[in-house]
Amino acid sequence: MSLAVTLALFVVAVLSLLPETDRLPPLLLVGAVVGATVGTVTTFDPRYAGIAAGGLVIWSVVYLLVSDTADTEAGEEPTPRIRKPSELPDFDDVGGLEDLKQRLEERVIAPITSPDAYEEYDISPVNGILLYGPPGCGKTFVANALAGESGFALISATPTDITSKWVGEAAQNIQVLFETARANEPCVLLLDELDAVAASRSEMGTSSQQQMVNQLLVELAAIDGSDVVVVGTTNRLEDIDTAIRRSGRFDDRIEVPPPDAGARREILRVALDGRPVTSTLDLSKTVSATAGYASSDVETLAEIASRHALSASEPIDEHHLSAAVAETGTSIANWLPAYDSVTEGRTDVSVVQPDGVNISATETLETDVQTRFSDVLGMEETKQRIQTRLLDPVRNNAWYETVGLADVDGALFHGPSSSILTKLARATAGELGLPLVVISPEQLGTELQRGPANRMSELFAIARANTPCVVVITDLNRLAPITTDVRQGITFVDRLAGQLRQLAAADLLVIGTATGTAEVASPVRDTGCFEVRIEVSRPDVDTRKTVLRSTLTDEILEDGFDWDQAAAAVAGLASDDIRSVAEMAARTAVRNEQPLSTEGLAAAASEYQSDGEDGPPRYIT
Length: 621
Description:
Distance between the termini: 126 Å
Structural class: alpha/beta
Number of domains: 5
Low-confidence stretches: 18-24, 38-44, 61-75, 343-349, 446-450, 484-489, 613-621
């Protein structure tokens, strides 16, 4: 018995060297095992005591190791990573989702960055946003881009960052997250996969989970009035606790659906940007073939196409994209029945042929307008005016009505270049992702036996039958000139004005173009369709340089080519005319086997202007 007692005392002495907080469990176990050993061994054998003592030492060491690790896990507070805006993407990196980006700009960014106007209307910034929709469609990326676009810091957390096996620690983790967010205002706090953190409390099995949701509710209420924007993401909105979803916690719930045709095109453009592509790359077939893809699926396709092109040492073309389409597919097949529209694609839009209309609606309605503002070189101030005065109100009509601003039915683009006016109007339809009907003097005058007024009525009927869409009426100064008198066509002007009033009441956006507002007959100009008027001036010097640089390659230019002089030589010309002059000058230089000089460009501009006089205007009668 003395040997067992001696070994037990030795173990106790060793354990006594440990901190007091770590002694009790091992000592209790020592006492229990020694007592059991002594009480059950009738004839004492030293081997039993040695085995018991050795087991106790091993168990104590293991216990302390596990205890130390557990204490570290349970005791360490989470250290959320704070990302600077410079480390984040912005809205330019988000393919498509224009309506969503605009909504975030107006409801989150602007009230924080420009508070005065919003305070006047007593409109507060949105502190909580729930992004929901199928996986892989860009919810997390949009949240990152929101922070980058706004210049806010980003703090993100996943369920593994928050949840814990230790009672009460998950609630503490949430508290630390929000404290960090408030210490870094303005910031975006991203709670990814929120349904895993804030599931319905009625379905939770532990009090720790319920404490976690309760703490989240407390923190969400506490950020009201601060410059902290909480963005939660979830695949299924209904899986989140109702108290979390109700107004006052997450003020905005925004669906992020699978990308439509326009968004898929933009995602492909962004994904291929910076990679070698053919100059004539056409994305139309790929856009149609990827109907129903998630955003991440489209990005994967671009990656695979790039690998195919790399293997062949070729720039990326339609062949590589087609091969990538054959190797990929949608990852959200189970979600698509709820999104029938996205599986159609813009090129497959069902076109309505109105009764009694002889003109083909299919041939008239452009369902996939590919022109974008990026296709209009330079003219940044003009494009920004169109964005602010026309696109924003159209995209956010309901919000504008809440602050007492009227609906926008259309706009009149006016300026000296008819071609650039039409291109900007087409780009507006492309930016909105809406079908387009173009009406020009040439179209109305091609079948004179039927009369331009009748043809105009049929074109307008096609537009009304396929709303929402954009109607572009070009050269109003030729269709309804101010010089028109009774004998020349007052009847047509009156009918045009009447048709425009009907369009103003439909779900249509009407854009007219004219070389000058004063040149359009007042019955047409003042119908109410053209309350927004945007002047489009001749290209400024920066735009002229941009057009010239995009047309002329360094290989054909003489050393020291003066871009300022070149821009001055084409002053007064429209962008398309500048491009034509540059191409003419380049061909002349190549033909003469000489580098192109600024003098050569100026000579081409002078020749172009002398040969490019417009003919007399053609009026509708």
